[in-house]
From TrEMBL, chain A:
One of its GO terms (cellular component) is clathrin adaptor complex. PANTHER family: ADAPTOR COMPLEX SUBUNIT BETA FAMILY MEMBER. It is found in: Endomembrane system. It comes from the Eukaryota. This is Adaptor related protein complex 4 subunit beta 1. It comes from Cyprinus carpio carpio. Belongs to the adaptor complexes large subunit family. Residues 583-618 are annotated as: Disordered. One of its GO terms (biological process) is vesicle-mediated transport. It is a peripheral membrane protein. Keywords: Membrane, Protein transport, Transport.
Automatic annotation (TrEMBL), chain B:
PROSITE patterns: CLAT_ADAPTOR_M_1, CLAT_ADAPTOR_M_2, MHD. Belongs to the adaptor complexes medium subunit family. Keywords: Cytoplasmic vesicle, Golgi apparatus, Membrane, Protein transport, Transport. One of its GO terms (biological process) is intracellular protein transport. It is found in: Golgi apparatus; Cytoplasmic vesicle membrane. Residues 203-444 form the MHD domain. This is AP-3 complex subunit mu-2. It comes from Cyprinus carpio carpio. The lineage of its organism: Eukaryota, Metazoa, Chordata, Craniata, Vertebrata. Signal peptide: none annotated. GO terms for cellular component: clathrin adaptor complex; cytoplasmic vesicle membrane; Golgi apparatus. InterPro entries: Adaptor_comp_med_subunit (IPR050431), AP2_Mu_C_sf (IPR036168), AP_mu_sigma_su (IPR022775), Clathrin_mu (IPR001392), Clathrin_mu_CS (IPR018240), Longin-like_dom_sf (IPR011012), MHD (IPR028565). It is a peripheral membrane protein.
């Protein structure tokens, strides 16, 4: 680029432009002007030629005029005094018989960004607003906005505003939209253009004459309008209906946004609009342009926050193509995780498995993390895949798998045993610091279940001198102390060495302080240390059960069709929230909170009547059956909601977390659907049957009926019934994702 | 968990969160920068005040972070602006946005700009843009004013600014006239906004091209994982006056997700599945559609492959045979097979039964220009690959990308039944052409 030596170039051009011979030859003259423009667009400063260029504006050649205008607009603010010389030519052009010349001159005059222009352009603009050629009117209308921005602090000219409002009725559709655009800018301080009922309806009726850009903008302006009555609302919606299926994705999406906004009080209308737009949205996700595909995916992700089921059957559309850019693949994986259900889980996992060996380590790791997310619901299948990946012996894959295991164990305690077995058998260890931290956390937290844990850890303690990351050292300290608490004999010696090294030789202050802390803690006694160091081994909140819930549309419709979601600052709240919680080191606070191992259920109104449940030894099928037949039903209640449509694994895991054991389920959608569950409370065993769709039980067509039996009968529990019933909210994450209330007695 | 390829600086995030979401549509596109593959800005255009080139530094940062040129995220937030870019023909079109705008709007607009350039110059390359810099500026000036899209229909634009042709350049040079339309486009005054009035032709003709692109992923065993067809009907209508056309299909129910040119009367389509419209003058896209139900999509080619690597051996086997299927007797032409072989492959020694193949040992890209598939003698490519000595067996077999064309066939089975014209007296010449192309057609091995 000719940033250097620009003076030479400018000198030469000036010589040529001022040469009378060149000026006489129109073609040569124009060629030099083109050259100036070319240099200007390449970033060379040619403002020194201003005088010569102004002279060139006096010509009949429109292209040459355009070029000179372009030049003048660029440099006018630097040379205001010289630019004034050009104004006369421009004003003369504003009265040219050719509307094209009039428009051109007016537009460029308005583009001169220099103070004091207003007095020259006001009169031509006002004349232009009444011009008979729509081309000139279009330019003049926008000129009003430009004129205002030249002197932003002056008072708003009421006559111009009124004129613009009147021009909203112009026969030319572009003039109409330009009026909106100009008014919006002029009235910015007053909150923009006012959309009242007549204007709103006028715009709605003109919609079909507008080009797609204008449609999209008008739809955005209409967001300001609130219909007075439901009748009016539905009139508007039916006018807009066809635009939901516009061939331009941006119009379809803008219409959808307006629909969601207007129909905020009518959820069924909103749902219907989402359903109808799902086709154009999916089409955008498959568009030829990557950028459009990406934008489409981001919008789908937003819609899925409220309507996760909408795209379930189209999951194959979100499989990644080999040559797609990574930003699309990341989004697609995020979507796939949300779309998993009983039917497609095998296919989706197989697909994700094939991404795990992608050339790009980031993508491979994202795919592994995605499998880990699915594992929270379908642990067994995913664990097989993840274990298989460890066999590839690729550093980045091993590290990602170990990190995924850590998160999985935290969110999904029932997979602990399998994970521990795999980790114990895994030969090679991760090389990066995140992977090391994850492995150490697993070793420390579940050392009792991994037989080789102390030996693996010893390796890390021996290699401490070469370890660079202080985060790994901190994690190692915590893990070693935890391990000492559960396997003291094997760990005592190495813990001593570790603490000695960290206190005496470590240069990092944080690590040294942490080691000192543990050392002093251990001096207080093992039990004291245990109280402080150990914490819950899994996520104590029930987020594993809740999974993704349907969010109300109002949560996201304000950012729908805006830049936020695409720029990555409106990631799904879940991913944002869990990424913080995923780090075990962030859990330090949780770990310090003492928590009893039994879940304590307390009724909100009566603190005395606490019932604590525990799992206790499992019952055999025969014992359960015998007891069920022997005992009398103590209580029966219709719950008023249908059975959870979750996978049996999920349901079982969920109930286990609230200390309820499952004995048997009716598989799938069989009617009647039954489930037998049991739990133990203080000195009593509680058995229950859940039933739906049985002809004999009244009220069970639509909702669950629960029958409860108890052995031995706990008078305390019966006397206070039903106020004593403890309401427990269990939210099932799968398929229909609705809240379920479970009543446990 | 890596959620997003590009970590957004926290200061930017904070700035974005505080940004109030105003329902304003003002100031759409502030400036446009054109950046070439080597990261040089070679053209800039400002519709409002001049934005310094340094704003593109944020874009260059993202470009540096991206491993591949196409991995640059389309929306890049900066403290004061958003940068929205599209990559076409190895040129980044970077729009500078100062306030909240609908993203799809800007992306589609940028694509429209590129389409227009392509329409005007035939190709949209850096050289073509630099050669036609004057027309480029004229176009950008007409397409946007004050940052708002104005005239983007190629019909109307071509009347405002005549496209450069070699002949016209010569004529202009001799006569000294210019390539600016002397008259204003009359379309602006017509009752039908997309059609100008007073159109006159000596030969009245209407051509429709049904073009389908098939996107598919085929797995190892040859079964289809996903397949969908994206179709368009492009029209070239040169008819005198105000003709009113109706076009009907033999099997309109095939079409999913149809989207129309604004000229199509949507009510009529919903009720009768007939396309009724007053066409724009010249070239336009009448409709685009999808066919995605799995069972409806016929896969026109099959691949028999045997690509294997043995543990401990420095040789790998490579066998590939292509064949037509479900093509309704039409020939599969312009077949091009490409595949990214694993990193461990040093060289490939193959023997094509027809066409030529190349293997680039640096990029490991194998491409085989097959040409036409002859059903009697199926094309095959067989041979061996030599692997790096001592390297372990590659984890995964390569994916094969196939490109092909089939003339006179719409693979979805879509057929035009008839085309009628009302409103004018003359008899137009009508033509319909079908074509199927491979879009993203991949076979996993």
């Amino acid at each position: 680029m000719p940033y250097l030596g620009s003076e030479e170039v400018v000198k030469e051009l000036r010589r040529a432009l001022s040469n009378p011979n060149v000026q006489a030859d129109r073609l040569r003259y124009k060629n030099y002007i083109t050259k100036v423009i070319r240099y200007m667009t390449q970033g060379l400063d040619v403002s020194a030629l201003f005088m010569d260029m102004v002279k060139a504006s006096a010509t009949v050649d429109i292209v040459q005029k355009k070029l000179v205008y372009l030049y003048m607009c660029t440099y006018a603010s630097d040379k205001p005094d010289l630019a004034l010389l050009a104004i006369n030519t421009l004003r003369k052009d504003c009265a040219d018989p050719n509307p094209m010349v009039r428009g051109l001159a007016l537009r460029n005059m308005c583009n001169f960004r220099m103070p004091g222009m207003t007095e020259y352009i006001e009169q031509p603009i006002v004349a232009g607003l009444r011009d008979k050629a729509s081309y000139v009117r279009r330019v003049a209308v926008l000129g009003c906005a430009k004129m205002h921005s030249l002197q932003p602090n002056t008072e708003i000219d009421g006559t111009i505003v009124n004129e613009l409002y009147a021009l909203l009725r112009d026969p030319d559709p572009v003039v109409v939209v330009n009026c909106l655009r100009a008014l919006e800018e002029i009235l910015k301080d007053e909150g923009g253009v006012v959309i009242n009922k007549p204007i709103a309806h006028h715009l709605l009726n003109r919609m079909k004459d507008l080009d797609s850009w204008a449609q999209s903008e008008v739809l955005t302006f209409l967001l300001r309008y609130r219909p007075r009555s439901d009748d009016e609302l539905f009139d508007i919606l039916s006018l807009l209906d066809a635009f939901l299926l516009s061939s331009h994705a941006h119009v379809a999406v803008a219409t959808l946004r307006l629909f969601l906004h207007l129909a905020s009080a009518h959820p069924t209308v909103q749902a219907d609009a989402l359903l109808r737009t799902s086709a154009p949205l999916l089409a955008t996700c498959g568009a030829a342009s990557r950028e459009l595909r990406f934008a489409g995916l981001c919008h789908v992700q937003q819609v899925m926050r409220s309507q996760p089921g909408l795209f379930g059957t189209h999951y194959k559309r979100f499989f990644c193509g080999y040559s797609e850019p990574s930003y699309i693949k990341f989004r697609k994986m995020e979507i796939l995780v949300e779309l998993v259900n009983d039917e497609n889980v095998a296919l989706v996992l197989e697909e994700l498995r094939s991404y795990c060996t992608d050339v790009s380590p980031e993508l491979a790791q994202a795919a592994i993390a995605a499998i880990g997310r699915i594992a929270r619901t379908y642990s067994e299948k995913c664990l097989d895949i993840l274990t298989g990946l460890l066999g590839l012996k690729q550093d980045h894959i091993t590290s990602a798998v170990i990190q995924t295991f850590r998160d999985l164990v935290w969110f999904c305690p029932q997979s602990t045993a399998a994970v521990c077995q795999t980790v114990g058998a895994c030969v090679d260890s991760p090389q990066d610091s995140e992977g090391k931290q994850a492995l150490l956390w697993l070793l420390g937290e579940h050392g009792d279940q991994i037989s080789s844990a102390p030996y693996v850890m010893e390796g890390y303690i021996d290699g401490l001198k070469t370890e660079l990351s202080s985060a790994v050292k901190m994690e190692l300290l915590t893990a070693a102390v935890k391990m000492f608490l559960c396997r003291p004999a094997e760990t005592q010696d190495m813990l001593g060495r570790l603490l000695h090294y960290c206190i005496e030789e470590e240069s990092d202050v944080c690590v040294r302080d942490r080691a000192l802390l543990y050392y002093r803690l251990l001096q207080r006694g093992v039990e004291e240390t245990r109280k402080v160091v150990t914490g819950p081994k899994s996520d104590p909140s029930m987020s594993v059960l809740t999974g993704r819930q349907e969010e109300p549309i109002s949560e996201w419709d304000s950012t729908f069709n805006t830049l936020g979601p695409l720029a990555g600052c409106d990631l799904c709240p879940q991913t944002a929230a869990t990424s913080a919680a995923d780090q075990p080191s962030c859990r330090a606070e949780n770990e310090l909170l003492p928590e009893s191992t039994d879940v304590t259920l307390s009724s909100p109104d009566d603190a005395e009547e606490e019932i604590s449940l525990s799992l206790g030894p499992p019952l055999s099928h025969e014992t359960f059956e015998k007891m069920w037949l022997d005992l009398e039903t103590l209580h029966r209640q219709t719950l008023g909601f249908p059975r959870p449509r979750a996978a049996p694994d999920t349901l079982q895991a969920a109930l286990q977390l609230v200390k309820i054991q499952t004995l048997a389920f009716t598989p799938g959608d069989t009617v009647p659907w039954k489930a037998y569950i049991y739990t133990r409370s203080t000195e009593t065993l509680i058995l229950a049957e859940l039933l739906q769709g049985d002809q004999q039980a009244p009220g069970s067509d639509e909702s669950l009926v629960v029958s409860v039996k108890q052995q031995p009968v706990n008078q305390h529990a019966i006397r206070g019934f039903p106020s004593r019933s403890v309401v427990y909210r269990v939210c099932f994450s799968q398929v229909n994702q609705t809240n379920y209330t479970f009543v446990v007695f | 968990m890596p959620n997003h390829p590009v970590p957004v600086p926290s200061s930017v995030l904070a700035a974005l969160k505080n940004k109030t979401i105003h329902l304003s549509a003002a100031k759409m596109i502030h400036s446009l920068f054109l950046v070439n593959a080597s990261g040089d800005i070679f053209l800039e255009k400002h519709w409002k005040s001049v934005v310094s080139r340094s704003v593109c530094d944020y874009f260059f940062e993202a470009l540096e972070r991206a491993t591949e040129p196409e991995n640059v995220p389309p929306v890049i937030p900066t403290p004061h602006h958003y940068l929205i870019n599209v990559l076409r023909h190895r040129i980044y079109f970077v729009a500078v946005i100062q306030s909240e705008v609908p993203p799809l709007f800007v992306i589609e607009f940028l694509h429209r700009v590129v389409d227009t350039f392509q329409d005007y110059f035939g190709v949209c390359t850096e050289a073509a843009i630099k050669d036609n810099v004057v027309v480029v500026y004229e176009l950008l000036e007409e397409m946007l004013d004050n940052g708002f899209p104005l005239a983007t229909e190629s019909n109307i634009l071509k009347e405002l600014i005549k496209p450069p042709t070699i002949l016209r350049t010569v004529v202009n040079t001799i006569t000294g006239s210019t390539n600016v339309g002397e008259q204003l486009p009359t379309g602006q005054l017509s009752v039908v906004p997309w059609r100008r009035t007073g159109v006159k032709y000596t030969n009245n003709e209407a051509y429709f091209d049904v073009i389908e692109e098939i996107d598919a992923i085929i797995d190892k065993s040859g079964s289809t994982i996903t397949a969908e067809i994206q179709g368009v009907i492009d029209a070239c209508v040169k008819l005198t006056g105000m003709p009113d056309l109706t076009l009907s299909f033999m099997n309109p129910r095939l079409l999913d997700d149809v989207s129309f040119h604004p000229c199509v009367r949507f009510k009529r389509w919903e009720a009768e599945r007939i396309l009724s419209f007053i066409p724009p003058d010249g070239n336009f896209r009448l409709l685009s559609y999808h066919v995605s139900s799995q069972n409806l999509v016929a896969i026109p080619v099959y691949v028999k492959h045997n690509i294997s690597f043995r543990e401990g051996s420095s040789q790998g086997r490579f066998e590939l045979t292509l064949g037509p299927k479900q093509t309704m007797g039409k020939a599969v032409e312009s077949v091009l097979v490409s595949s990214q072989l694993p990193r461990g492959v040093l060289n490939a020694n193959l023997n094509p039964s027809q066409g030529t193949y190349t293997f680039d040992p640096v990029t490991k890209l194998l491409s085989w220009d097959v040409g036409k598939i002859n059903p009697q003698k199926l094309p095959s490519l067989k041979g061996s690959m030599s692997l790096q000595a001592g390297a372990s067996k590659p984890d995964e077999n390569p994916t094969i990308n196939i490109q092909f064309k089939i003339q006179q066939l719409a693979i979805s089975g879509l057929k035009v039944n008839r085309l009628d014209m009302y409103g004018e007296k003359y008899k137009p010449f009508k033509g319909i052409k079908y074509m199927t192309k491979a879009g993203k057609f991949q076979v996993r091995t």
